[in-house]
Amino acid sequence: xxxxQLVLFDCNESFDxxxxxxxxxxxxxxDIETSNWWSPAEERIEIIQIGFRESDxxxxxxFDPLAGLNPERLRRTLELG
Length: 81
Hints:
By secondary structure, this protein is α+β, with helices and mostly antiparallel strands. Helix content is 21%, strand content 38%. It starts with a strand and ends with a helix.
């Protein structure tokens, strides 16, 4: 069994604390849930989950764009080589 931790990030301040940890991760796993995917005009991101390993534990950051967290803030982290 791999130890893990789930953390909900629903405000910019919590993301500010997480961003450097994501940037330091060797690999990220990303899952995006959307609604209305069949209609580009109405499609929207409902939740974003990012998994990464930190020490001997798997962390899963859950981002809630519906709570006001702008998913665009993830762009820099996800574009890192």
